[in-house]
Amino acid sequence: MEFDDRSYYTAYDHNYRVAYEEGLAFLGEGGSQGELRRLKGMLGRIPHSPAETGILDLGCGDGTMGIFLAGLGYRYLGIDVSEAAIERARQRSADAGANAGFRVADALDPDTLPTSGFDIVVDCYCLHMLVVDAHRKRYLRNVRGIMRDGGYFILFGSHNPKANEGPVDSFAEFCRKTGANTCGVPLLKRQENRWRNVPGKSVFLMGRSRSLKGYRQELTAAGFRILYRSTYRRDRRDAGFLMR
Predict the structure, then answer these.
(1) Domains of the chain by range and CATH?
(2) Dihedrals φ, ψ of 225, to 5°?
(3) How confident is the model over 12-44, as pLDDT tens digits?
(4) Regarding beta strands 147-158 and 237-243, do their DSSP bridges make them parallel or antiparallel, or are they unpaired?
(5) Rounded to 5, what percent of the chain is helix, strand, coil?
């Protein structure tokens, strides 16, 4: 699969589809309790009543956060550029009896985004998947456009103290600077207690980590004020930001 400055960040639709074709969940469907606890912890720092609070989830994937947040009483809408992910999210939400809404939308295209202001916008590794500087700036502008005045933005992403913080003007430049593998990695399936490659099926995993300093500069340049920052590490370094 060849990627350009448009297609690299929509490759996750391919990932979801090839996984579902094999009867697999993708990207840890159902989420980890640790991630949900961290989100709940961030929400606990915001003075609000869930029943009176609208949350927009950018890059909602299989709907895990939507089911969780709807269960806490929030008015929830999740969007994702992947039609396959949204179909899965709607089915999982219906099966769970959750009052969560989902729709296909491109976070880089304001014409596809909701127009009403949201009290809280959540991003769990959506900005992370955007590697070109211009795309990241556009994305953050769009986030500000869909937050109500006085609203909050919760962002989770990977951080790397040694991240290349130089300019990235194109997907090709990102590949040159990082050595990103655009040939895909084999889709794995658990069979007879062993992980085996699924013949002819590959997924594409690309994202851009920042240093904590890089995140701070990028987010403040976009007009956000960081109220709280957390870092944690399990299999990788991750960071969470609460902003206004």
Answers:
(1) 7-23+31-40+50-152+161-207 (3.40.50.150)
(2) -110, 120
(3) 999 999 999 998 887 666 667 788 999 999 999
(4) antiparallel
(5) 35, 30, 35
